Amino acid sequence: MKGIIGKKIGMTSIFSQDGKQTACTIIEAGPCIVTQVKTTETDGYSAIQLAYGDKNEKHTIAAEKNHFAKANTAAKKFVKEFRNYFTEKSLGDAITVDIFAEGEKVDVVGTTKGKGFQGVVKRHGFSGVGEQSHGQHDRQRAPGSIGNSSDASRVFKGMRMAGRMGQDRVKVKSLKILKVFPDKNYILVNGSVPGHNGAIVYIQK
Fold first, then answer.
1. What is the distance between the alpha carbons of residues 89 and 117, in angstroms, rounded to a whole number?
2. pLDDT tens, N- to C-terminus, the chain (205 residues)
3. Which of 89, 22, 16 shows the shortest CA–CA distance to 50?
4. 96: closest CA among 189, 28, 165?
């Protein structure tokens, strides 16, 4: 596996030579610092720990300061472990967007936008206004009937109802890398990735 921590900048679109438009997401990927190297001999598995984004020293506890000092780096906000990294890395090494190339396909992991408590029309796509479902009468955004009264006299698990929507961990697979800008640490992937602008995402292959 190879991976890096990044920040979603926003969306744009690029045009090919034949005029085809492709929507894409701009991600600021790295630079990340290797803050821990795990091996099968010492930890039972092989992995490296990457850190990204500077953290205010005032908000950093002593244990974190000592941990990052071993890698000879300042305190970082975000830490992520990647198992079985594709190449050998040492403590304090920098990982940049150069590990990826144009045309590669990657998976992007992020947290979706939180929508709060939502009803069934928005959360599950119920028909709503003008197309009332059975058991609804004249309340056009209500969920309608949720079960029988005598048999089975209960609501089955998994019933689609109102509730908290969004803020879920989501992995979008096989996104193609369209462009890499090493000087700006930018990477362009086709399509959209989860999260708001400024959200932290993990790019892995």
1. 44
2. 899 999 999 999 999 889 999 999 999 998 999 999 999 999 999 999 999 999 998 999 999 999 999 999 999 999 999 999 998 899 999 999 999 999 999 999 999 999 999 999 899 988 766 665 566 666 778 888 888 888 889 999 999 999 999 999 999 999 999 999 999 999 999 999 999 999 999 999 9
3. 89
4. 28
